[in-house]
Design a protein that fits this description.
This protein has about 120 residues and is an alpha+beta fold. The protein has one domain: Alpha-Beta Plaits (2-Layer Sandwich). The protein has 5 helices and 4 strands; from the N terminus they run αβααββααβ. It has a 4-stranded antiparallel sheet with strand order 2-3-1-4.
Amino acid sequence: MSALDASALDEFLAADPNGPVVMLNLIRFAPGGQAKYMQYIERFSSSGVNERYGVTIVYAGVGHPSLAADGGDWDMVALVSYPSRQNFVDMVNDPDYLEFEHLRSEAVATAVLQPTTAAL
């Protein structure tokens, strides 16, 4: 799993630092990664990081075979809401978050982290 690109984060933040954002997470686990990812989720909740930055998991679900997709199948799909882009950037740089982020990195073989904003 590649780390977040600093220049992409800068552009993301500059576009609308105070605007809310919902991240679409598409995740394909490394072998044995699902259990490690569940450890990441548990630490995310128990550490208070989610509350500190106003993070809300809107939806999380297990992926099934795609009906139509070029990117293949995903093991997990999640929509995660942040009150602002600044909150997201601050969270991923928070030392408490960085203590357990390795669990996510080790668990994930391939991922898409797509920022979205409301269109309707």
